[in-house]
């Protein structure tokens, strides 16, 4: 028998997997209010005071909670964390720390971490790049920035898009989404860009989060117009300015959208298999692109 979708008690048209930690009624992201542990609904926050021990209020009644009751889960089946912004904060910290490190250490550190297919390093007097076995550049470039406006724009976008996704997906799935989006952007850039062209920045990962936001909003029956307008503006900017690595943006967008679709539309009876299987397929596609380009450059 097909499982009935759980819907927000204040917005019956919106599916959700998040519950109030006090009354356990299902709530959508619009109704979630951060608490010291998890989220609470507006009515519990407004009433104040703790809920009765071992009980929860539902529709004006009090029901007993079994000691072994399952922990509330997110819409994708992830555990609800006490701090739904923790992974986003860590990612922000890594980006900022690496930006400061490049400012202190200079161009040498940036050149060692930036994404480049194949180029000749005059300082080291040798060929460098992903094609020469430096595959780590596909990931390090995702956390690398140069200009203040570049990192400021990406980090503001991460802070705006990240926490709602982290709360909805759970920490592990959200981190997988971010990393696979970044790697997907790097892989497509490596595949299509000139071999000596360097690129850096979290834009690919951010575009992945933007695509995931659209998928999640569509799944929860939210108004799609704001995210559609934002996506359209970013795509226009991507192709208007010649110094932007459009390949990374598109690669991240495709990877993030694919990962998010697999996560939020996975059937409950095979949820983990479908979700992590989708991540595996996106990672496999990334590896294929990298291998194909490496063969082109070294064959």
UniProtKB/TrEMBL annotation:
InterPro entries on file: Peptidase_S54_rhomboid_dom (IPR022764), Rhomboid-like_sf (IPR035952), Rhomboid_protease_S54 (IPR050925)
Residue span, Peptidase S54 rhomboid domain: 133-264
KW Membrane (keyword) present: yes
Spans traversing the lipid bilayer: 174-193, 199-217, 224-242, 273-292
Pfam families assigned to the protein according to its UniProt record, in alphabetical order: Rhomboid
Keyword Transmembrane helix attached: yes
Membrane topology: Multi-pass membrane protein
Localization terms from the record: Membrane
GO biological process: proteolysis
Gene Ontology molecular-function annotations: peptidase activity
Annotated coiled-coil segments of the chain: none
Keywords: Hydrolase, Membrane, Protease, Transmembrane, Transmembrane helix
Assigned protein family: Belongs to the peptidase S54 family.
Entry protein name: Rhomboid family intramembrane serine protease
Organism: Streptomyces pactum
């Amino acid at each position: 028998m097909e499982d009935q979708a759980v819907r927000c008690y204040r917005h019956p048209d919106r599916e959700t997997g998040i519950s109030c930690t006090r009354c356990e009624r299902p709530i959508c992201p619009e109704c979630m209010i951060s608490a010291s542990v998890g989220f609470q609904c507006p009515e519990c926050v407004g009433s104040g005071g703790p809920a009765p021990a071992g009980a929860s209020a539902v529709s004006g009644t009090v029901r007993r909670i079994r000691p072994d009751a399952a922990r509330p889960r997110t819409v994708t089946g992830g555990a609800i964390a006490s701090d739904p912004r923790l992974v986003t904060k860590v990612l922000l910290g890594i980006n900022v720390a690496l930006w400061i490190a490049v400012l202190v250490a200079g161009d040498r550190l940036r050149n060692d971490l930036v994404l480049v297919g194949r180029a000749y390093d005059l300082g080291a007097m040798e060929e460098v790049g992903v094609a020469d076995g430096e595959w780590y550049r596909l990931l390090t470039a995702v956390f690398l920035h140069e200009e203040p406006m570049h990192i400021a724009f990406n980090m503001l976008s991460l802070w705006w898009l990240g926490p709602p996704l982290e709360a909805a997906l759970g920490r592990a799935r959200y981190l997988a989404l971010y990393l696979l989006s970044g790697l997907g952007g790097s892989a497509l850039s490596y595949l299509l860009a000139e071999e000596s062209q360097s690129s850096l920045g979290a834009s690919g990962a951010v575009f992945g989060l933007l695509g995931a936001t659209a998928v999640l909003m569509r799944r929860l029956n939210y108004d799609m117009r704001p995210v559609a307008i934002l996506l359209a503006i970013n795509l226009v900017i991507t192709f208007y300015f010649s110094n932007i690595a459009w390949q990374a943006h598109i690669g991240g967008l495709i990877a993030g959208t694919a990962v998010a679709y697999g996560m939020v539309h996975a059937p409950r009876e095979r949820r983990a298999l479908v979700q992590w299987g989708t991540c595996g397929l996106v990672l496999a596609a990334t590896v294929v692109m990298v291998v194909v380009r490496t063969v082109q450059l070294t064959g």
